[in-house]
């Protein structure tokens, strides 16, 4: 469903990726781990076109984004990126709820303005989703009245309201107080059980082990090791993987 | 805190010093003039020919019949003459304040002015001349002016005559060049002004002509402070001497100002006979000025609000062009903002109103005021919006894009509403500033509140009472906005909404 081929990406002078290949099949869960600055966020951002790249392709459900033409505005390219974004939802570390809109407005914003849904049916759908995460009573609250955990759950619902075929999570629990991590992971766990194609960048190793079909270890822009959770966490092959895991377990 | 205290103490000290120093510079009497060796005479070189104006051959030198007259008077006093530049409108208040010894600049002797200052015997008899375009055939005198737009100078007898003639749409200017220019390009139908002015600016213009005989008759006198009776006596004596020796006539002939009327000067110049003022008018009660001031205030409100709307909309366009436009659009918007912020509003207004006609675009005063203020403030609003937009975290745009929104939709629905909330207190403050800056449009023949005040105060010399009323009106208009701005700021601090 998602496939990355020979991806090159640099920030200014700094060459981050030198040819990355990665595949996620429909209904599978891939977890990206690795030290800070290793490129996990960048992979996710390349998948839904928030970041452009110099070489290679990203294909989502048959729609291909290739390296952007240098600086020039390319209509077809922009169109493809938008098609991909319709299929892939994204959840950010910082939640990024719209602070000037209530919970319900946050959720129905894209369905009404992008999909062209009637407000009533969009609200109906949003309410169903909110009930699933037990936040139906907060529909008229503004984001700054919600706890971090509640905000991130609403952000997940907001992405789901667009009926995506895959979800990207960029460290969804890293900005949360520890007692709220559980409620967010529970929502993701539910999604995964329902068979949502998912890519998660996370430092929650326990959760990674539990939900992942495949785990990819990044270091300095390289994919140093790929395997099942068991392979990576119990029998890591590479020295760098072992160093990373031991540091994180301390 | 301590620093603040020190600064305020310093400030108070400075004020005290100023108050203490001020009186010594005021009230220079006849003896002082002799002691210091020169007489300071106030006039406005911007007022122009043939009174006092920069020599076209050497603009660093002033010439004019009044320059000659001042030199002749100084010679008789045994001193030299030094000109002191002062806006014509406020020559008399400046004289009273002690800025110079005498004021001589085509100042008409009127009973109102005589309440506040002394006048020498007349040195010139003027009348008012009507000037129209060459192709005009239906205006032959003041009685034909009903329903016409007629230009004149602020605070002149001509203005009084026009105001008293029913149905005339009087356009009041601050300088004497502009009314004739506006007449030539058809913004107004006629100009009524003192003959010396008409002879210099009207007659010389190939597009214009005199119509009808000069009307009214009045006297130019030298204004002297009430406390300087001895100075007045000396100057009267000198004027009499200059007249009988034929020197005065020589000066007037040199400037082409000698005509039959001046022969009558002999009778008027004899102080013992005295002379009649132009108009008898009693001191009107203050409330009679309210309707005019209120009308001025209404025009101020109308100009300010409409040009603010333009500024808000155009500013938004500039911001979007700068942040999201093509390179060309981005460059033009940036250039626009830099130019408008880097040049004075006053000059922008002059170019719009008096400059554009040179390339064939003639705007009405109202349109020029609206465009001038609006286009200027748009540059400032744009900066406020830009600051607002850059205060929005990048994640907002990314979240919107990741939900499938186009960039345009994301800007419109997500980024701008938040940015505007941030910019709103600043925009409100700018509105207050625009309210006050709108007084600048008085230079383009727009009679708003400040101009109304100028006109009323210059003709009645009641700068103080009328000034307080005008200031109060401004305050009443801007104070609610201040309150609003403060509330918006408080709300901003409370939360993102
Ligand atoms: N906008 C940017 N400009 C320049 N360099 C960037 C930018 N974004 C990321 N980088 C660099 O790219 C590298 C990879 O960053 P990335 O955010 O993908 O890492 P990460 O694995 O997600 O790290 P973390 O665990 O801290 O989120 C880092 O060295 C970072 O400094
Ligand atoms: Mg990251």
Notes on the structure:
The complex is a heterodimer of chains A (250) and B (497). Helices cover 40% and strands 25% of the residues of chain A. Chain A is α/β, with parallel strands linked by helices. Chain B has 497 residues and is α/β, with parallel strands linked by helices. Chain B contains 20 helices and twelve strands. Chain B has helices at 2-25, 30-36, 65-77, 91-97, 111-116, 157-164, 177-184, 195-202, 229-244, 247-254, 260-263, 265-269, 290-324, 327-342, 345-355, 365-390, 394-402, 407-437, 449-460, 463-494; strands spanning 38-43, 53-55, 58-63, 80-85, 102-103, 118-119, 124-133, 149-153, 169-173, 190-194, 208-220, 223-224. In chain B, 41% of the residues are buried. The chains are: A alpha/beta (250), B alpha/beta (497). The interface between A and B is medium-sized, with 27 and 21 residues. Residues 40-41, 170-171 of chain A line the site of magnesium ion.
How is this structure best summarized?
Chain A has 250 residues and is of the alpha/beta class. Chain A has helices at residues 40-47, 75-87, 103-113, 119-132, 148-160, 178-193, 205-211, 229-234, 239-249, and strands at residues 2-11, 14-24, 29-33, 55-60, 63-66, 88-91, 166-170, 197-201, 214-219, 222-227. Chain A is 40% helix and 25% strand.
């Amino acid at each position: 469903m998602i496939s990355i081929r020979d991806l090159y990406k640099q920030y200014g002078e700094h060459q981050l990726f030198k040819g990355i290949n990665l595949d996620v099949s429909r209904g599978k869960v891939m977890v990206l781990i690795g030290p800070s600055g290793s490129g996990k966020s960048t992979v996710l951002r390349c998948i839904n076109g928030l970041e452009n790249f110099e070489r290679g392709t990203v294909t989502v459900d048959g729609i291909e984004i290739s390296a952007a033409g240098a600086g020039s505005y390319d209509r077809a390219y922009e169109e493809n990126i938008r098609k991909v974004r319709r299929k892939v939802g994204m959840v950010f570390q910082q939640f990024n709820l719209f602070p000037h809109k209530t919970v319900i407005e946050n959720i129905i914003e894209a369905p009404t303005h992008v999909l062209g849904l009637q407000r009533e049916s969009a609200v109906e759908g949003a309410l169903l989703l909110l009930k699933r995460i037990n936040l139906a009573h907060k529909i008229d609250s503004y984001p700054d009245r919600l706890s971090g955990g509640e905000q991130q759950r609403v952000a997940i619902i907001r992405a789901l309201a667009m009926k995506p075929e895959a979800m990207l999570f960029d460290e969804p629990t890293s900005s949360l107080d520890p007692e709220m991590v559980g409620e967010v992971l529970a929502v993701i766990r539910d999604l995964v059980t329902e068979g949502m194609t998912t890519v998660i960048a996370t430092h929650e190793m326990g959760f990674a082990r539990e939900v992942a079909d495949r785990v990819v270890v990044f270091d300095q822009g390289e994919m140093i090791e790929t395997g099942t959770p068991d392979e990576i966490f119990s029998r890591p092959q590479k020295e760098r993987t072992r160093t990373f895991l031991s540091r994180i377990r301390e | 805190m301590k620093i603040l205290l020190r600064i305020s103490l310093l400030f108070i000290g400075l004020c005290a010093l100023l108050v203490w120093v001020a009186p010594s510079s005021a009230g220079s009497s006849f003896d002082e003039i002799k002691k210091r060796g020169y007489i300071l005479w106030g006039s406005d070189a911007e007022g122009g020919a043939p009174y006092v104006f920069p020599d076209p051959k050497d603009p660093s030198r002033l010439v004019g019949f009044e320059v000659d007259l001042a030199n002749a008077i100084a010679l008789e006093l045994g001193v030299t003459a030094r000109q002191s530049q002062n806006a014509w409108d406020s020559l008399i208040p400046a004289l009273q304040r002690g800025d110079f010894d005498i004021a001589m600049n085509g100042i008409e002797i009127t009973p109102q002015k005589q309440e506040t200052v002394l006048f020498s015997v007349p040195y010139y008899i003027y009348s008012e001349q009507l000037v129209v375009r060459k192709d005009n055939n239906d205006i032959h005198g003041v009685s034909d002016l009903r329903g016409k737009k007629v230009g004149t100078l602020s605070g002149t007898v001509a203005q009084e005559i026009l105001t008293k003639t029913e149905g005339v749409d009087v356009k009041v200017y601050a300088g004497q060049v502009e009314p004739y220019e506006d007449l030539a390009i058809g913004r107004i139908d006629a100009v009524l002004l003192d003959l010396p002015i008409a002879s210099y600016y009207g007659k010389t213009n190939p597009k214009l002509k005199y119509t009808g005989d000069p009307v009214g008759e009045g006297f130019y006198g030298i204004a002297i402070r009430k406390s300087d009776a001895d100075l007045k006596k000396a100057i009267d004596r000198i004027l009499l001497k200059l007249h009988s020796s034929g020197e005065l006539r020589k000066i007037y002939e040199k400037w082409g100002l000698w005509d039959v009327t001046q022969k009558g000067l002999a009778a008027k110049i004899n102080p013992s006979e005295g002379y009649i003022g132009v108009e008898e008018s009693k001191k009107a009660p203050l409330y009679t000025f309210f309707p005019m001031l209120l009308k001025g205030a209404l025009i101020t409100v109308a100009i300010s609000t409409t040009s603010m709307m333009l500024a808000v909309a155009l500013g938004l366009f500039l911001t979007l062009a700068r942040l999201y436009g093509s390179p060309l659009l981005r460059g033009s918007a940036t250039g626009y903002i830099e130019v408008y912020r880097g040049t004075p509003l006053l000059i922008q207004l002059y170019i719009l109103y008096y400059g554009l006609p040179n390339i064939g675009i003639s705007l009405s005063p109202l349109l020029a005021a609206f465009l001038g203020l609006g286009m200027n403030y748009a540059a400032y609003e744009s900066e406020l919006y830009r600051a607002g937009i850059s205060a929005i975290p990048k994640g907002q745009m990314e979240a919107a894009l990741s939900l499938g929104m186009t960039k345009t939709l994301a800007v419109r629905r997500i980024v701008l509403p938040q940015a505007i909330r941030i910019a709103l207190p600043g925009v409100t403050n700018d509105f207050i500033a625009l309210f006050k800056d709108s007084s600048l449009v008085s230079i383009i023949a727009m009679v708003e509140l400040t101009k109304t005040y100028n006109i009323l105060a210059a003709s009645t010399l009641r700068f103080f009472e009328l000034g307080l009323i005008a200031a109060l009106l401004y305050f009443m208009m801007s104070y609610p906005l201040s309150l609003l701005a403060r509330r918006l700021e408080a709300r901003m601090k409370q939360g993102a909404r």
